[in-house]
Amino acid sequence: MISICQATESMYRLRSFILSLILMMAWASCSRHANDYSMFVDIPSKGWEYARTLVFRPAIEDAVAEGTLSLAVRHTNGYPYRNLYLEVSYPDRDSNSTLMRDTVNVELADIYGNWHGSGLGTSFQFSMTLNDNFLLSDSSEIRVRHIMRPDPVTDIEQVGIVFVATK
C-alpha cells in the first residue's frame, strides 16, 4: 500500500515534470531562429539625403538561408507625403555577384491621410514584404536609398530590413 506521503511526493514530481515541460516548450517557441535577421538604421533629424545609401550586411549563422525579406519604415506623423519611393538593391538569387535593383513604392498613408501600419503617439511603422522566396547568404549586402524629388526627405526616423528564415 502507498502511504499518503508517497502519493503526495509522486504528485509533486508529476506536477514539477509537467510544469518543466510546459516551460521548455514555451522557451523553445519563443527562441529566435539563428538565421532570422533584423536591423534598423537611424535617419538624421535633419533628413535623409539623396546621396546617402543605407547598407545592410546581414549576419546569419548558416552560409545560406531562404526566407522572407521585408522592408520597414518608421516615420513621424509629420511626414508630408503618402508614399516613399525607394530603390532596393540586393544580390540575384542565381548569381550572388549580380545586383538586382527594385523600385519600391512604400505607401505609408491612404488617400485620406490615414497612416498604414502601427503607431504610438507621433511615430508610425509600416512594413511590407519585398520577396517571399529570398535567398540570403552570409556575404549578402542589401542597399536602400530614397529616390524622392525632395532632398532631403524629412520625418523618416528609421529604415530597416527584416529577414525571417523559412528553411
Question: How does this structure look, described?
Answer:
With 167 residues, this protein is of the alpha+beta class. The chain has two domains: 1-31; 37-165, Jelly Rolls (Sandwich), CATH 2.60.120.1300. 16% of the residues lie in helices and 44% in strands. It contains one helix and nine strands, in the order H-E-E-E-E-E-E-E-E-E. It has one helix at residues 4-30; strands at 37-42, 54-56, 64-76, 83-91, 99-107, 118-120, 123-137, 142-146, 156-165. It has a five-stranded antiparallel sheet with strand order 1-9-3-7-6, with no helix packed on it. Strands 2-8-4-5 form a four-stranded antiparallel sheet, with no helix packed on it. Strand 6 and strand 7 form a beta hairpin. The longest helix has 27 residues, at 4-30. It starts with a helix and ends with a strand. The mean pLDDT is 81.
Largest sheet, spatial ordering of strands: 1-9-3-7-6
What integer value in Å does the Rg equal? 23 Å
Largest sheet: 5 strands, antiparallel
Q: Determine the strand fraction and express it as a percent band.
A: 35-45%
Task: Write the CATH architecture name of the largest domain.
Answer: Sandwich
**Euclidean distance between termini CA atoms:** 53 Å
β-strand number: 9
Helical content stands at: 10-25%
CATH class of the largest domain: Mainly Beta
Number of helical regions: 1
**What is the N-to-C succession of helices and strands?**
HEEEEEEEEE
Structural category is alpha+beta
Q: What does the overall shape look like?
A: elongated
What is the CATH fold-level name of the largest domain?
A: Jelly Rolls
